[in-house]
């Protein structure tokens, strides 16, 4: 299974939040992990915010960021362009998210699942 994680799901892998355990179980079952290029900056910002608001310590912040950087190398990164972004935005307004179920807009599925595409192993080890 290819598992697409939006930014909120990626953050759940590195910070204890509602849905973190479920996201970890899904990652453990996945053969490949995918996200979009925006998730890199958004995840870094979310982890930095957790440090600034004292939800994680300085030492934990550095270790968490390093762990994310290591894992990010193994993610398949879906580009965000005019082919994908507008349909995804419309679908997000019409969808209901519970915060624990990773979602993916249909155009990104087509991009990620293209025949012949090579995927690196994600290398994630759920906590």
Question: How does this structure look, described?
Answer:
The protein is mainly α. It has a single domain (2-112), classed as 5'-nuclease (Rossmann fold), CATH 3.40.50.1010. It has six helices and three strands; from the N terminus they run E-H-H-E-H-H-E-H-H. It has helices at residues 7-14, 20-29, 38-52, 58-72, 85-94, 106-112; strands at residues 2-4, 32-36, 76-78. Strands 1-2-3 form a three-stranded parallel sheet, sandwiched between helices. Helix 1 (7-14) packs across helix 2 and helix 3 (38-52) packs antiparallel against helix 4 (58-72).
Low-confidence stretches: 87-107
Question: What sequence of helices (H) and strands (E) makes up the elements?
Answer: EHHEHHEHH
Strand content: 5-15%
- CATH homology group: 5'-nuclease
Keywords:
single chain, 127 residues, mainly alpha, three-stranded parallel β-sheet, 9% strand, globular
Write the layout of secondary structure elements.
Layout: E1 2-4, H1 7-14, H2 20-29, E2 32-36, H3 38-52, H4 58-72, E3 76-78, H5 85-94, H6 106-112
Parallel strand pairs: 1-2, 2-3
């Amino acid at each position: 299974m290819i598992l697409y994680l939006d930014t909120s799901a990626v953050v759940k892998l590195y910070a204890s939040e509602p849905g973190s355990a479920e996201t970890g179980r899904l990652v453990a079952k996945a053969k490949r992990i995918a996200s979009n290029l925006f998730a890199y900056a958004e995840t870094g910002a979310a982890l930095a915010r957790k440090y600034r608001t004292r939800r994680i310590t300085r030492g934990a912040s550095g270790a968490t960021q390093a762990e994310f950087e290591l894992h990010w190398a193994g993610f398949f990164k879906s580009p965000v362009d005019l082919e994908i972004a507008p349909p995804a935005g419309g679908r997000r307004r019409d969808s209901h998210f519970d915060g624990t179920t990773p979602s993916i807009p249909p155009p990104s599925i087509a991009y990620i699942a293209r025949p012949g595409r090579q995927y690196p192993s994600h290398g994630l080890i759920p906590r």
